Each structure stands twice: as structure tokens, then as C-alpha cells.
Amino acid sequence: MSLRIGDAAPDFTANTTQGEIAFHQWLGDSWGVLFSHPKDFTPVCSTELGYLAQLKPEFDKRGAKVIALSVDPVENHQKWTKDIEDIQGSPVTYPLIGDPTLAVSKLYDMLPNSAGETADGRTAADNQTVRNVYIIGPDKRVKLSIAYPMSTGRNLDEVLRVLDSLQLTSAVRVSTPVQWEPGQDVIIAGSVSNEEARKLYPEGWEEPKPYLRIVPQPVRDGARGKTAKRALNGPTDGVSSGTVPFTF
User: Fold this and answer.
1) Would you name the residues annotated as active-site residues?
2) Full residue range of the structural domain in which residue 220 is found
3) Helix (H) or strand (E) holding 226
4) Is there a contact between 33 and 159 (Cβ–Cβ < 8 Å)?
5) DSSP secondary structure letters along 156-192
6) Same domain, 146 and 188
7) For residue range 125-160, what is the model confidence (pLDDT) as tens digits?
8) CATH code for the domain of 228
9) Is residue 167 part of a domain?
10) What is the C-alpha radius of gyration for the chain, rounded to an integer number of angstroms?
11) What number of helices (H) and strands (E) belong to the chain?
12) Considering the domain boundaries, does residue 27 fall inside one?
């Protein structure tokens, strides 16, 4: 059965470029982002892992641990990370999981059980379904799952933006609209009645439809946030998700 949003993220023990880890124990109470790759020394994945190395401080700011997986032994990963640093200019400071027996790839339903028990002799095309991103919450449940084709590099800024949205909406009863960026307006969650909403937002809200109640993003001191250009009204010059985490 496929791993779905809301499912428990499977736990596992594996060797990584930073030693053996027990995944859930390694995550602790943090958010986690797991990136998977079909094979070492592949061109698109090399660019992705290099850019992820540049973005890692942004994930750190958000209390999110990042980890990658590739269907090859750790010994190969160690060599590959040197190439990645040459390509992108940033050292890989996060762990890369070795999956030479395909155990983790199968546990996360990225490969079928019929794939066998060794990465030896398998090509990137054989492992092309091992191209996923998972965001995992502190409760160890899957909050996001995206699968990518081998020919298309991932938009890691978008992964960071979604993480911002997930962290905001897990703390405050709101949803984020299309093209939302941190600091822009949000939508009062459907689970909040108008009576509750009047207590939470005494200054009111915009309501183009009864089911669409728009408010500035909540801020920590309870004051109304600055109203950015509305994401609901089309493209904006909104705040970059790669530079400004949300506040509430």
C-alpha cells in the first residue's frame, strides 16, 4: 500500500555518511525532510543535493532536519559528496543514507518487493521511482509526499515554502492559499466557526464567499500582521520562503 499523508513514517535503522542512525530517534522532536535518489553520480540529483547543501541553514532555522537517501552504499556516497561540492560549491553537511539492500526504498514503497535485495547491477532507470520528497512532522507522520521524474530537478524552494505553511498551519487554525509566501494573508480554517473566529480576529476578515474568510497571517503578539499583496489576487512580489520564516 502506498504511503499517504497522515500515515506513520516507517522507522528504520541504516548506515549513513554520518554513521548508523535509527530514523525516529534521529528525528527526535524535530520536523524532518527526506529526499530520495535513484543512484549516485547522476546529474540531476547532483545539482539537487548541492542546492540542498546551500539551503540547509534555512531548514535549520525552522527546526527541520534534512537527510537524503540514495540506492547505493555509503562508500559511494562519500565519493559522490566530493563531486557535489565541486559542482555547487557547498559541502554536504547533512547525512546520506546508504540503501544497498533496497530495504528503505521498499519500506517507503518507492520500489516493489520484487526489486530484489541488492543495488548491484541496477541502473538509475531501474530505480527511477526512488525520486521522492517526504516532510515528516514531530509526531512522525507524513505531512507531504511528492514524487518526481528523473529528468526534472526538484524545486527545493517550494519544499521550504511548504514546510513554512505546514509549521504555521499546525500551530494556528488557518490554511494558506495559492501562491502563499510567509507574511501574506491566510484563510481561516473551515473547522473554526464564525463565533470562534470573531474572538480570534475581533477586527474581522474579508469574506468574498461564506467559505472563504481571509485574514492577515497571525503574529506572535496577537496583533494583526502586515497585509502583503494578496496571493488570492494573482502573482505577487511576496516574501521569499527561503529567507523569512513565519511568525505567529
Assistant:
1) 45
2) 172-233
3) none
4) yes
5) HHHHHHHHHHHHHHHHSSEE--TT--TTS-EEE-TTS
6) no
7) 999 999 999 999 999 999 999 999 999 999 999 999
8) 3.30.1020.10
9) no
10) 20
11) 6, 11
12) yes
